[in-house]
User: Fold this.
Amino acid sequence: MRLLEERILKDGTAVNEDILRVDTFINHQVDPELMQKCAKDFASHFKGMGITKIVTIESSGISPALLTAIEMGLKLVILKKQPSKVLNDDLYQTMITSFTKGTNYELTMSKGVISEKDHVLIIDDFLANGECATGAIRLIRMAHATIAGVGVLIEKNFQPGRSKLTDAGFEVYALARIESMSRDNIIFS
Amino acid sequence: MRLLEERILKDGTAVNEDILRVDTFINHQVDPELMQKCAKDFASHFKGMGITKIVTIESSGISPALLTAIEMGLKLVILKKQPSKVLNDDLYQTMITSFTKGTNYELTMSKGVISEKDHVLIIDDFLANGECATGAIRLIRMAHATIAGVGVLIEKNFQPGRSKLTDAGFEVYALARIESMSRDNIIFS
Assistant:
C-alpha cells in the first residue's frame, strides 16, 4: 500500500536494522484517517471469505483491527496479555516469548467469545518473528475456530514471521513490506 | 445514554459491589456498532469546545477514543503503561497506583505528541477511583496543554473519581453512571 509506505518514509524512524519507530502515526499517536484507509484495504482484500470475527492482540493492533471490524460489519476480539499464568477455567492461555523485547507473557482469550463456527481474521500492527500471530492462532484453535488469514500493517520481511505462517498454511497480507532497514534508510520489497 | 445502560443490564455482569464485567461488548470482545454510537455521543457533547486532540490510556479505552477521534476529525494519543520508570529524556512519566488492581505502573507520553497549543479531551472506558484520569491529566499538564474534560463510558458513581476531577475543575461526562451494584443487580443514577 503506497500510502502507508510513503508515510513510513516520511514519519517513521529506523533506529537500527531491527527497530522501526512509528510512534507518531500508528503506535502512540494514531492517525485515524490513515488507519481507516488501511482498514478499507484489509476489508477489500479479505472480503467474500466468510470471515465472522476479527481478532487482534492488545494494544497496538487495536486501532487497525477495530476499523477493519467496522468495515466488515463484524465484532472484534482483543486478546489480552497477562504477566503470568492465571488459574481460570474460563480462559484459554498460551505463553508468548518475545525475542524482540526479551519478555515472556501469557496471551489469553475467554472461552465463549470465539466458537467452532467462527472463521477468524487476525489483524495486527507488525509482523516480525511471528510470536504474537502464532500465539493468537494457538488460542483460536483451542476454541476450534478456523483462520482465514493474517493482515498486518507492516511486515519485516527480513525476519521469519511470514514463512512461519505461510509454511503452516496461513495467508499473510501486509500493507507495507520492509526488505531491509538501517539507520535512516528503509527499503520496501 | 440509555442504549449503553440497557446493554450493561443485558450483557454486563456485576461480580460483586465493586467489579463490573463488560468483557463481551467493551473490554475483550468489542461491539463496534455500540462503540460508534458512544463516540457520536461524546463528539456531540464536547463539540465546539476547541478540542485539538483525543487522549486515552491503553488498552480498553482505545476503541471508544479512536472512534471519538474519527467523529471529531482529530488525532488520538494513546498513553502507554510501563512496569517501571524508564530512563528517557524524551518521555513524560508519572506513577499510577491502582487501588482496584493493587498494582503500580508508570504512565508515559512522548514529548512532542502534545504541545502547549493543545486542548485535550480524555476518553476512557471506566471512571472509578480516578487514578488513570488524574495520571493522564498530570502528563498532559507536563506538556503545558489544557484539558477540555474527561469522557467515560461507565462511571462508578459510588467511588471518588468524579469528585476528584470536578473538585480540580475538570468536566466529567459519563455515558452510564452506576449508583450501586451487587451480584446481578445494577442501579443507574
